Amino acid sequence: EVQLVESGGGLVQPGGSLRLSCVASGFIFSDYYMDWVRQAPGKRLEWVGRIKERAHSYTTEYAASVKGRFTISRDDSNNSLYLQMDSLKTDDTAVYYCARLWGSGLIDYWGQGTLVTVSS
Amino acid sequence: DIQMTQSPSTLSASVGDRVTITCRASQSINTWLAWYQHRPGKAPKLLIYKASNLESGVPSRFSGSGSGTEFTLTISSLQPDDFATYYCQHYNNDLFYTFGQGTKLEIK
């Protein structure tokens, strides 16, 4: 059974940092592109960023709203995905989901999400 | 950017009802559309991909149709577990994808 389990969310002050983790199981993690997606209160789901697999040099891509502040990385030996969030803003308050991509950019599995609250 | 608009935003229905949710794209997306179900506190679940293909393990009471700019998700006979929020998503091999704003399906 494919599972994605996020952790690391919490309350952080504006300008602060937080690192989210996502542990994958039930599939060959190293074979897949992985995304982070978020949903702010009352807003629609928003793509945050992507990391490709080793065959594509672990290339990363980011939404304009987080580029330069967020960094995605992965540790295939531990089936783990990470999201380092720096210079956090109140607008970054959201539930953050990790997601597995399957062919043509389709998300076929999601984690249950972890809440990040940016507030003073 | 392609915008996705769902209607209605909220839908009240009873167990056994047939319901339809609509998703419209701001420009043609062929059949590059997925539908997800999201229950509170749970991981979103893929229901339909490529507009009309049922994901493995998803009950056959769920169906999708459409192409171009207009798409529908139909649940033929609502079950208690179906009360959730449903999202459409435009996807393809481009850099990023966009979601509809969601349709909350409530018990009448």
Overview of the molecule:
The complex is a heterodimer of chains A (120) and B (108). With 120 residues, chain A is mainly β. Chain A is 0% helix and 52% strand. In chain A, a hairpin with an 8-residue loop joins strand 5 and strand 6. Chain A is globular, with a radius of gyration of 14 Å. The N and C termini of chain A lie far apart (40 Å). With 108 residues, chain B is an all-beta fold. Chain B contains no helices and eleven strands. Chain B has strands at residues 4-7, 10-13, 19-25, 33-38, 45-49, 53-54, 62-67, 70-75, 85-90, 98-99, 103-107. In chain B, a hairpin with a 7-residue loop joins strand 9 (85-90) and strand 10 (98-99). The radius of gyration of chain B is 13 Å and the shape is globular. Classes of the chains: A mainly beta (120), B mainly beta (108). The interface between A and B is medium-sized, with 19 and 25 residues.
What labels describe this entry?
heterodimer; A: 120 residues; mainly beta; 7-stranded mixed sheet; 4-stranded antiparallel sheet; 0% helix; B: 108 residues; 49% strand; globular
